[in-house]
Records
---
Amino acid sequence: MAAIDKINRRITLVAPDGKRATYKVSKDAINFDQIRVGDRVKVTVIEELAVFLRKAGTPPSIGEGAEVALAPKGAMPGGVVAETAEVTARIVAVDT
């Protein structure tokens, strides 16, 4: 753990290859107060992108959702956070 912003609930992690990434921690994370800079954490990050084509004239839409599963109070900090977002947009270019 390279940095913790407790006010904005963000953590910065450093991967074994030195790459840094900052993540938002859910407000439901019960044991967030237990982690410290320098702690080693096990994290699996999966990013996916799905593109669906719709007929022209379909009204634009935006949607978001989140699911959180947390470690019980007093246990080692841990949990799973899944966030999704849906945006309807017009494709203006494709770079293969």
---
Amino acid sequence: MEGACLSDRLVAKAGRTNPVWALTIALSLLAPAYAERIRDLATVQGVRGNQLIGYGLVVGLDGSGDQTTQTPFTVQSLETMLTQLGITLPPGTNPQLKNVAAVMVTAQLQPFARPGQQLDVTVSSLGNARSLKGGTLLMTPLKGADRQIYAVAQGNVLVGGAGASQGGSKVQINHLAAGRVPDGATVELAVASPFLQGESVALELNATDFSTAQAVTDSINAEVGEGTAHALDGRVIDVKAPSDPDRRVRFMAQLENLQVALLEPSARVIVNARTGSIVMNRTVRLESAAVAHGNLSVTITSTPVVSQPGPLSSGQTTVTEKTDIQLKQDGGALMKLPSAPSLADLVKALNSLGANPADLVAILQALKAAGALRADLEVI
């Protein structure tokens, strides 16, 4: 109450001297605690990368290539490549090569990429090659989803791992069947972008949220002018932009760095049922509740028992097993969880149960069903 009175006195005093200053103080007192840039909240529709893929050969391996008897496509690819280079193998020839490996080559064509620009490519073994270390990727066309060639890759493969084997023993650090070729691909064909088409651009939020869409729209209209931005739904915002390319780029640069005051995110608890991981954001709340959770454990022990026959008998020694099964259930005392208005209080309350992550998953689901957990529970 004392703080509120102080703020009212500041606004009143400022209003008598400078009305603009008073409005600034009032808005700062009402503003949320944090803000983000539009570039961190949204992307421009149509401005995206495109995946490229190709099939090629890596040569120059030190005996760690494909076993050609088990990967016949490697030999077939090598024969096809040699034929294109004017070399014809005699009929019936079956090369047994250990320094060649069939690979898949992948890359991402960045937005606005032009012919002549360089791309990084990833090379992954397709057969049973032990290592691609020291190999050279031969010229490999990279195609898009429309089967057109957008880039061509070639170069030395860099592998971040190391390994050695001798006499049946093997030591390996990191992965040897995949590597990268920095700047190994050259763009040959550009992808048309809709960025300069039309009288407006569309901003797509990273997550669907009506509050964020309205906040971004209000910030753009306040900065550029009323009527510039219109929210089409909870994810897409239509923004009028200049038609001139230079002015449009300058306009988008100004727009990306615009600060947007955000409200608190919706309360969410993410549970990974496979690993037992639990992640919750700071807006999660817990009402007062009582929880009883007991663990049921089953222990099975098997002890070998040797049965010896009597002296001078015709019996045989036999080995049997004695099995003992014990069923134990820990006490499930009823514990009271206090109301937790903050994330720190919530973590402290859950830790007081002394449950492991797997048990906490069941407890959180029960708290949600009982209405004590004020958050959206998502199990992945």
